[in-house]
Specification:
six-stranded mixed β-sheet, single chain, eight-stranded mixed β-sheet
């Protein structure tokens, strides 16, 4: 064993590979083979620009409600690295991660692995030993060359396709869509939740002989005030419907996609489990509301234009009686000006924060310049995320709202601060109400 604590391992992993992001399957495949990794249970792989976490959380909640032992792998984490790997409703322990990292380090020989590749192999190594009924893997970046794609998924989901990570995936939806579709497999199910998928997604699925199911073509949903209905097909291709479903805390676009995917899983999923999962699912940091002294605090990791459009719609759907302010910090490589343009009418005050120690983050002064160029007033520099939230809350009264968004790093810092205020328990960032994680 190279190290004796998880913190030591993670610090080493962050600097042991020459590049933080190094897409490709050759290195990780070699080490997976040396580890004899082979998953015997059904696997669902989830790719997409936005909505991946929601699809994983809801799939896990429904399958867990049926009594299945589910393993999920997601990234990035918010507060604790252990959040990335969940086995049967609990985060893996530090000791389990130490054992996995040690096994990988021994097996890899001279092969260099990225931080994400190490984590992916650790998840697969632990899943193989956990006697699971099903595994759900979230793609980290893209799909075709992401480390998760060394596993042949029985069911592949592409939740949505939008512009993000252009430096690695391309600058238009057709190119990005082809990367996402790389998780499809010949003769296996591919469920596309994007209502207007790029032609590259459909063409690739057709070319390799995947069985592609598309929203608003093969499955759809309709919503009323307090419930929703779903229409799709079962594993035999026959029409299937659910009526009067409870509204979940995740977007219905993603919920509808998950319901279609689960029809093709070679496991029985009852109507009761579907309804229970929809009622119980919860995802931290995605339109998450926290009440603190009468102020509605909303945490959202939205960091690209498509995601902030969804955030704007959510805020409009659930208005407050008072004023709305925001705390914002974002990575420098995002479409910052467009993000600001989409949400600038939603807030009376912008508190701009710096993410100290994060070399990828945009400076608050640079963001302030973009807001001024858009003639936005009420712009303040708050210092750290915690200090910005504190100042925004100090200006707020009961009935007001403070929205914290821009990146996973922003929300993670917010959660740590709010935990000190008694607003959120970061020791138990959960994906389904009632799970003990």
């Amino acid at each position: 064993m190279r190290f004796t604590t998880l913190e030591e391992w993670l610090q080493w992993l962050e600097c042991q590979h020459p590049r933080a992001i190094d897409l490709g399957l050759e290195r990780v495949s070699v080490v997976a083979k040396a580890l004899n990794i082979a998953l015997a249970m059904p696997v669902i792989t989830v790719a997409g620009t936005n909505g991946k976490g929601s699809c994983v959380a809801l799939s896990s909640a429904i399958l867990g409600a049926e009594g299945y032992r589910v393993g999920t792998y997601t990234s990035p984490h918010l507060v604790h690295y252990n959040e990335r790997i969940v086995i049967a409703g609990r985060y893996v322990s530090d000791d389990e991660l130490l054992a996995a990292f040690s096994a990988i380090d021994e097996a890899r020989g001279a092969t260099s692995l990225t931080y994400f590749e190490f984590g992916t192999l650790a998840a697969l190594w632990l899943f193989q030993r956990a006697e699971l009924d099903v595994v759900i893997l979230e793609v980290g970046l893209g799909g075709r060359l992401d480390a998760v794609n060394i596993v042949d998924a029985d069911i592949a989901i592409v939740s949505s396709i939008a512009i993000d990570h252009e430096a690695w995936l391309g600058r238009d939806r057709e190119v990005i869509g082809r990367e996402k579709a790389g998780v499809f497999r010949q003769g296996r199910i591919a469920v596309v939740g994007d209502v207007n998928p790029p032609q590259s997604v459909l063409s690739y699925g057709r070319d390799i002989g995947a069985i592609v199911l598309c929203r608003d073509r093969d499955f759809s949903y309709s919503e009323s005030t307090s419930q929703w209905d779903w229409q799709g097909v079962d594993a035999q291709g026959d029409k299937l419907e659910y009526h009067g479903l409870p509204l979940p805390s995740v977007l219905l676009d993603n919920a509808a996609t998950v319901l279609q995917a689960l029809q093709y899983l070679d496991l029985n999923v009852s109507d009761a489990a579907v309804r229970s999962g929809l009622s119980l699912v919860e995802l931290s940091g995605r339109c998450q509301h926290i009440a603190l002294d009468g102020v509605d605090i909303v945490l959202d990791v939205a960091h690209n234009p498509a995601a902030v459009v969804t955030l704007r719609q959510h805020l409009q759907q659930y208005p407050v009686s008072g004023r709305s302010r925001c705390v914002f910090a974002v990575m420098a490589d995002k479409a910052i000006a467009e993000i600001l343009s989409i949400l600038q009418p939603s807030f009376e005050n912008w508190w701009l924060a710096d993410l100290d120690g994060n070399s990828r983050a945009a400076g608050a002064s640079d963001v302030a310049g973009m807001l001024m160029a858009q003639q936005v007033s009420g712009v303040e520099y708050g210092g750290s995320v915690a200090a910005s939230i504190q100042q925004a809350i100090a200006q707020s009264a009961s009935g007001d709202r403070v929205v914290v968004f821009g990146s996973f790093f922003t929300v993670a810092e917010a959660m740590l601060f709010l935990s000190e205020c008694g607003g959120v328990d970061v020791s138990s960032v959960i994906t389904a109400k009632g799970n003990t994680l």
